[in-house]
Amino acid sequence: MASCWSDSDTEDEMMGLRSSLLNALDAIETPAAFASSGEIGFVDPGVFVHGMGPIYLPLEESQARQMIEQAHQAPYGKGSETIIDTSVRNTWELHSGQFELRRPSWNTLLERVVAGVARELDLDSTVHAELYKMLIYEEGAMFKPHTDTEKAPGMVATLVIGLPSAHEGGEVVVNHRGQQKTFKLSNTQCSYASWYSDVVHEVLPVTSGYRWVLTYNLALDASQPRPAGGLQPPDNSYLYKTLKLWVEQDASLGPTSHFWYQLDHEYTEASISLRALKTRDLACVQALYEISTMLPVDIFLAVLEKTEHGTCDYDDDDRYHPYDAMYTEGFHPLEDVTSTTYEVKSLVDLDGKKVLRGRTLDTKSILQADCFEDISPEESYRGYLGNEGPDVTHWYRVTAVAVVARCSTASFLLGGLPKK
Ligand SMILES: O=C(O)CCC(=O)C(=O)O
Ligand SMILES: [Fe+2]
User: Fold this and answer.
1) Is 143 in the pocket of ligand 1 (CB under 6 A)?
2) Fe2OG dioxygenase domain spans which residues (predicted)?
């Protein structure tokens, strides 16, 4: 009911809402990885295939062909059924009763790998690995995008260990909430890739050689609560509620209702886009983007710049070598600031497409009051020149996300220089 408030009530209310928005955004944490990969080294698990004998590393074609003779086409889960359809999954498989891993130290190594994966995926340390299948992908073999069904009680993730075998292609591509990673298992040593069961993944076609892997189900004790990590989207309900209030109140007050939230990392004007964002920045902007599909707000990214111009002290050497001094390296603190300006250097949409440049920045719209503090500036220094003392310009740049009430997006975008 903004219309009944006195100005000071309104201002207090707005300040309260802004600090709630700041708290809600500050509370967003870096999510755990949804998938991870790494190298293990050249370790022989002592693969012994029943009816065949030991398999030597790296895998040779003759042994690959012999194993394929023992193997069967791998099925895949479709609803409650498992079916074989080589246009979806084309892989040879040996089930865990058909082979053994005879090297006694293999389990110790496996425990180390599983502990590392548990850390990377932020899984509880009680996670244990259960050997599931051995897979051999020959030329043309692949597995189309799918998620993994729960093959054991408490199963939360899949671990694939690649064994040394020369091959090309066969990369695993994992996709989760708009993020994609590609893993290539090693030809020459053991390596691993792991992902939460609900992460969509595919194995691209092998173009030559044999891709040879062991698959493990990673499961938590059935008594453990399921981890929130990659399985569930983070809980952004507080941010949603606060933004909803802002849209209803603050956003109806001004013609260009928006606010800026400074990101943790700096990005260059050329690179800034959703894809380039790291860790918590990605989580924050992704949360805002998801909310923008439910509330009438638009999200942009920008490089914000503060420029300070003024004079500075010069050392006596400058007076006698004025032209050298023009190129003095190092930092010159401003003695007397003659002008301070704030600008939106470059505004882009989440795909990184420029929508605006050179708009004046109203610093009151930045949620963090100390936005430009603790930033090391870039500087341009002009040394002692005849009658003029030395002068200096400092530029402080930060990257921020803009949240704009959709009713004022058009006016927000006016007032900048034409995009370049
Ligand atoms: O071969 C791989 O890397 C993955 C296999 C897979 O996705 C599965 O067994 O569900
Ligand atoms: Fe899978």
Assistant:
1) yes
2) 126-220
Ligand 1 within 6 A of CB of 201 = yes
19-64: pLDDT as tens digits? 999 999 999 987 778 899 999 999 999 999 999 999 999 999 999 9
Angle of the 7-26 helix axis to the 237-248 helix axis, nearest 10:
160
Distance CA 163, CA 161 (A): 6
Q: Does position 320 have pLDDT exceeding 50, yes or no?
A: no
Q: Order of strands across the sheet with 155-162?
A: 35-41, 190-196, 155-162, 211-219, 128-137, 92-95, 72-73
CA distances from 69 to 45, 51, 73, 142, 367 (A): 21, 11, 11, 18, 65
Phi, psi of 51 (to 5 degrees): 85, 0
Give the model's pLDDT for residue 50.
Answer: 97
Whether ligand 1 lies within 6 angstroms of the CB of 172 is answered as yes
Pocket-testing residue among 93, 135, 200, ligand 1, by greatest number of atoms within 8 A of Cβ: 135
What residue spans define the domains of the chain?
A: 8-30+231-414, 35-220
**Pocket residue to mutate for ligand 1, from 143, 183, 202, most atoms within 8 A of Cβ:** 143
CATH architecture designation of domain 35-220: Sandwich (2.60)
Interval between CA 193 and ligand 1 midpoint (Å): 10
Predicted complex ipTM: 0.99
Distance CA 172, CA 185 (A): 8
Task: Give the number of the ligand closest to the Cα of residue 173.
Answer: 1
Structure tokens at 291: 């909310």
Q: Which residue shows structure tokens 């936005």?
A: 371
What mean pLDDT do residues 379-406 have? 82
CA–CA separation, 31 and 111 (whole Å): 24
CA 361 to each of CA 134, 340, 351, 377: distance values in angstroms, whole numbers, following the listed order: 59, 12, 22, 18
Percent of the chain with pLDDT over 70: 84
Residue 93 CB contacts under 8 Å (≥ 6 apart), including other chains: 71, 72, 73, 74, 133, 134, 135, 136
Most confident segment among 17-21, 69-73, 74-78, 352-356? 69-73
pLDDT for 3 equals 35
